[in-house]
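user:
I keep going back and forth on a fold encoding question. Separate attempts, laid side by side, tell us more than any discussion would. Would you put together a sequence-and-structure record for a protein of your own picking? Write it directly below this note and I will take it from there.

assistant:
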Amino acid sequence: LKRVDGGRGFLQIMRGFELTTAKREHYHAALRGVPYPVQVLWGEDDTALRVDDFGQRAARAAGVELQRLPGRHFFQEEQAPAIAERIAALATGTAQSSAA
């Protein structure tokens, strides 16, 4: 993350996170009462946005079961096939879903 700029770009991104109630509600609205299927997938070993905190919150907001996959913050880089399977199951109506 430090690369050429000594980490300045990463720090700028991190400082840009807004932690207000209004921002949280904005994110939750994208998950609640929407006319499309929603699932919440999260990396089990994410140390930036921990699954037991942020993942659980997202699942509760969506009213779905949290689906944990092996991996860290960018777990999609390692779990692309598993994620694709979950998306396909959701799209075809064969995904398992229950309220968290």
Notes: The chain has four helices and two strands. Strands lie at 40-43, 66-69.
